[in-house]
Amino acid sequence: MSTVVDSTTAIDIQGLYKSFGQVRVLNGIDLKIAAGEVIAIIGKSGSGKSTLLRCINGLESFDSGQLFVQGQPLQYHNAKAMRTLRQQVGMIFQSFNLFPHLTVGQNIMLAPTLVQGISAQNAKTRALELLRRVGLAEKIDAFPEQLSGGQQQRVAIARALAMSPSVLLCDEITSALDPELVGEVLAVVESLARDGMTLLMVTHEMGFARKVSDRVIFMHQGRVHEQGAPETLFQYPRTPELVQFLSSLTS
Amino acid sequence: MRVALEFFPVLEEWPLLLTGIAWTLLLTAASTFFGLLLGTVCAYLRTQGPEWCRPFIVGYVELIRNTPFIVQLFFIFFALPAAGIRLSAEVASVLAMVINLGAYSADIVRAGIQATPRGQIEAALSLSLTHRQVFTRVVLPPALQRVWPALVSQIIIVMLGSAVCGQISTEELSYAANLIQSRNFRAFEAFIVATVLYLVLSVFVRHFFQWFGRRFVFGASRG
Amino acid sequence: MYLVRRVVEFSIWDILRNLLLAARWTIVLSLIAFVGGGLVGLGLLVVRTTQMRVLQRAVSIYVSLFQGTPLLMQLFLAYFGLALFGVETSAWTAAAIALTLYSSAFLCEIWHGCVQAIPKGQWEAAQSLALNFLEQLRFIVLPQAARIAVPPTVGFLVQVVKGTALASVIGFVELTKAGTMITNATFKPFVVFTCVGLLYFLICYPISAYARKLEGQLHVYSR
Q: DSSP assignment of C43-78, as one string?
């Protein structure tokens, strides 16, 4: 990253543990993420990548440890605190999760009008602005089912951005897309990274992770197994697990 | 023997039939509105309400589903006054229909709610919506859309069931037919005419609610 | 003094005993309608499954006539219609005939859905083995359809039991009619109708629960 405008900590994770029954999915995660940093999380399925992401906006609870977003502790059982936190943390899902009964515009305007009390007029202006940014301004009155997967995912990004979050979580956002549609979504994410958004993305697109991220985190058995700048990590992996993981991708 | 059917004496009483149709439609409209409301609230409580209220909802639904409508109606009209609750025939009819439709629609709407993909709720939560907002804005509209055909069928069953309300002298369509046959002794013809009118009503009501659902319930802004 | 006491002191056991006696007829009428309706319904199903368009159409009109009109009207029509055609009617015959036809229409519709759920390939495979239409139906399609048809058929039995309550309106003395008669004799509507409702529940709930259990098993097996 050439210009780090703000060096304060966006997310601070200390000693995070979580189990599903007998299976320990998060096994002591310590992680500090600076504002404006772009992080790619890689690892095998079942290594705890998605769970970690979902813990950060409270879709999963954790068993022990602490998690701070913009200096505020995550209080899983305090509904009001969770809502405040989630306004800071946007999330984009693998399966888009657009609301099928609402138009593209309404999908984007829903949370700003309900949660932030913005007038419908202003919300619409903002929605149009965001749609222009993801290149879908003409689709504002379309329904999700009328869009391609790539377009739906770009709308989902616009929907998350409408809350003006300071952190964006991307959970394998291109995994459900046909290969030819991956590019248009990644282009949008790349432009967000350029604009200084704090990004945490779980991804299988190694080329993209390498190009866009400031830091790559390799997760293995619920821990941060290895991390570093993309060039170093991909070219000089230090642990045998990462070597094995990377070679399994190229074969 | 020769059977001579004479419909004229029945059709001559068209004002009575018209009043009957109006009452049947009125009963249906009122019970649909309040019944679906009750059913939706029960479905909400059953799926995401506090733990303690679930047995009550289940009990209510099972009790209504496993007893005849006519007994429910008679209980409200004849038995409740003994407990100090005296209702007019019309109010008792609507109340019985609301309670009946409420129970059936609670089950139908619950099925629709439970078919909601988990991701929909997660997306709404991560946009900071409250649990209630998630339910009313994200879960309920598609759930109603999914089960609307079943709800419309149930509304028609309740409308046809309202023929029994004539037994406590609510002046709906079957009551009109009874009144006409008592005047001119053309019982078979009177009930044929009433039955045909019910058939027409059920076709009409089905189309109306299909349109109504698309227009106002789930497709509010489509088009 | 003695006489007044006898009239007023109609104990809850007397009420229950009389209702139980009447409930026998509810059960008998239900079984007649269910079995008779099943037989007629099966015949209609076979007709509906043939490739003859006119007959198919006729059966589906028959079904929608019964599904689109109140059961109460069907009972009245049977009652007065039989009289009109010179058949000596009793509430018994009218109720048995109306409820049988009513059940046949609903069961035909339920089973038709089950037959349609059988993949076309099954028919074609049977055809290619040189089975004729009735053999295809009898040995290949119906056995498969029957498996999925059992739960909704059992569930429909509840509807038949509740339907028999309407026979009270044409004077057939079953549980509901006994309830109104005992109410008139005792002036204890609350107690009587509570008992009536409870008895219906005791008959219907186990059937509902059993149908639900069968339904659940079906889903487990089909995985």
A: HHHHHHHSS-HHHHHHHHHHHHHHHSS-HHHHHHHH
Domains of chain C (ranges plus CATH)? 15-222 (1.10.3720.10)
A76: DSSP letter: T
Residues 6+ apart with CB under 8 A from C80: B187, B188, B191
Give all domains of chain B, ordered by start, each with its CATH number: 8-222 (1.10.3720.10)
Q: What is the dihedral of CA B5, B8, B9, B12, to 10 degrees?
A: 160
Cβ distance A86 to B127 less than 8 Å, yes or no, reads: yes
| Average pLDDT, 10 consecutive residues per value, chain C (223 residues) | 50 89 96 97 93 91 96 95 81 94 97 91 84 86 90 96 96 94 90 95 97 85 48
The single-letter DSSP state of residue A44 is -
B in contact with A (at least 3 C-beta pairs within 8 A): yes
Q: Which of B67, B78, B203 sits opposite C183 (nearest CB)?
A: B78
* Residue C171, SS3 per DSSP: coil
Interface predicted TM-score of the whole assembly (ipTM), two decimals:
0.91
pTM of the model: 0.85
String of b and e for A37-73 (b: at least 16 CB within 10 Å)? bbbbbbbeeebbbbbbbbbbbbbbebeebebbbbeee
| Three-state DSSP state, B189 | helix
Smallest CA–CA distance from B130 into chain A, residue: A83
